[in-house]
Amino acid sequence: MSDLIPVEQYLHSIHNASSTIQSKLDPHPILSRPRILIICGSGLGGIADILSKDNDSDSPIVEIKYSDIPGFKTSTVPGHAGKLVFGLIGDNKVPVMCMVGRLHFYEGYTFQETTFPIRVAKDLGIGVVVVTNAAGGVNDSYKPGELMVIEDHVNFPGLAGWHPLRGPNLEEYGPRFLPLSDAYDHSLRKLFVEKAKELNVIRKIHEGTYFFAAGPTFESRAEVRAIRTLGGDAVGMSTVPEVIVARHCGMRVFALSLITNAGVGAKPPSALHPNPVALDDGMASHAEVLEAADEASKDVEKIIEATINQL
Ligand code: HPA
């Protein structure tokens, strides 16, 4: 039996979700045509705080819980709230849709389910997606608290057949065979870096390749070394399926990793030789990820705000 939802049913759910959302936005004309989707990564839900806060008729906020949208799955991960927040960003009052809490494959959802919100966003008329995530540093020069503008990715599950575009092609969204050589929009990347400079952000900004591992385990030491060999600079459990579906829909993509921990690629302590390294040296944890994200989130928020204000 196929694990895929039949196309007609899937399309119907997408359109049903988008019309439910649209009906909640229509009473607020200034929000009713969102232009940008922002996906908040682990511990980065505070990005929704950059929406104009007055919550009056000039800058309204509309919040919709995932559980109130037909067809939307709910986020089960601590640090992922599970709601859409619609509001305005910057002096230019750019109308945006924020996903506070994303859906992951490791939670048991299919890629059709985890990328469902992207196609809903497309239905709402959105043309740009800003994706953020927490990621482990694999490149030796990356330190926790630094940022990586994603310039490319390795879709490791995808190369082995677990691909978000597997199954009948959704012709009304995009082509069967999609090139990904320009997945991460060059002008958006340049704009982000320019805004970081203008804002005098001293946090180091790298540009590199995001390696998608399905999770939920953090990588073993040998896996960290393997990912390094395969060209990954940072590793994480999200983003790539969303980016692929967004590109399939013809949306422009900007994606940012916050490096929350260093992947440990050193060999474990030996049983054969005396070794001073404790076994838990550098062990990754979700608490560490959330702590690092919290620390860096203010910088991420202000650069994203300035970038989106310019779009
Ligand atoms: N590996 C995978 N995903 C992650 C990591 C990591 O080290 N840190 C934050 N998300």
UniProtKB/TrEMBL annotation:
Pfam families reported in the protein's UniProt record: PNP_UDP_1
Enzyme class label: transferase
A GO CC term attached to the entry: cytoplasm
Domain of life: Eukaryota
Binding site for a purine D-ribonucleoside: 219, 261
GO biological process: nucleoside metabolic process
E.C. code: 2.4.2.1
Alphabetically ordered keywords of this record: Glycosyltransferase, Transferase
Keyword Secreted: no
Pathway: Purine metabolism; purine nucleoside salvage
SUPFAM superfamilies to which the protein is assigned, alphabetical: Purine and uridine phosphorylases (SSF53167)
Catalytic activity: a purine D-ribonucleoside + phosphate = a purine nucleobase + alpha-D-ribose 1-phosphate
Every Nucleoside phosphorylase domain range: 35-308
Record-level Gene Ontology MF annotations: purine-nucleoside phosphorylase activity
Residues at which phosphate binds: 42, 80, 102-104, 134, 238
Gene3D superfamilies (alphabetical): Nucleoside phosphorylase domain
Family: Belongs to the PNP/MTAP phosphorylase family.
Primary role: The purine nucleoside phosphorylases catalyze the phosphorolytic breakdown of the N-glycosidic bond in the beta-(deoxy)ribonucleoside molecules, with the formation of the corresponding free purine bases and pentose-1-phosphate. Cleaves guanosine and inosine.
The protein, known as: Purine nucleoside phosphorylase
